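In line with agreed milestones, the collection of sequences with tokenised folds has grown. A representative record is reproduced below.
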Amino acid sequence: MYDHSRSAATRFPVAVDAALQDAGWRPGRWDMQQAEHWADALRTHTSPAGHRHTVFPAAVEAWAEFGGLDISPTGPGRHIAPTPFTLDPLHGLHRARTLGDLGRALETDVAPLGQEAGGQAVLAIDAEGRVYSLDHTGDWYLGPDIDQALNTL
């Protein structure tokens, strides 16, 4: 049976695919040079209190495919309102302690992925590729991988 909610050309539901393509994403997009630039910037940053970021393959791969996109989903949303978000790990540059604390709680490494709604929440990815949103009320699990997180957002 054909799933009419998905685009034939991509792995995303039609609305998600449209929002991604409007932001500049295309199947096969892969900018490893930019991802490595972000990785270097995060690796070399140390907070005034001595906190540092961790960088790992799941984060670098997500940055290579989706980094730099400003995504503005449209539509009313069924269960939650769509929120604009940006996938740029440098939005979390000064959140090394916060992300380190989340990583310790989850018993894994966590790296910045971007931000929601102009900074209302930080997006993060762990070493297994799971994605989270952190805001003033807590941390929120967005999905087991970047694809599911993009669907959730």
Observations:
- The chain has a mean pLDDT of 92.
- Residues 30-152 form one domain.
